[in-house]
Amino acid sequence: xINIIFAVFIGGGLGSVLRWLIxxxxxxxxxxxxxxxxxxxxxxxFIIGLGxxxxxxxxxxxxxx
Length: 65
Prior knowledge:
cell inner membrane, elongated, cell membrane, sodium, ion transport
């Protein structure tokens, strides 16, 4: 159980720092759309999808994991 908590902690921390850095780089005060946050969320969702596809094919874990 502690390994799962630690993995969520590390993943959440890395994701939030990367989102913040991308937002600093891409968000502009003159645009109403937060392009940096949108980009970070789309890239993050893509990476999570790649990870799920890899672990589904490479391991015999239950899909719930």
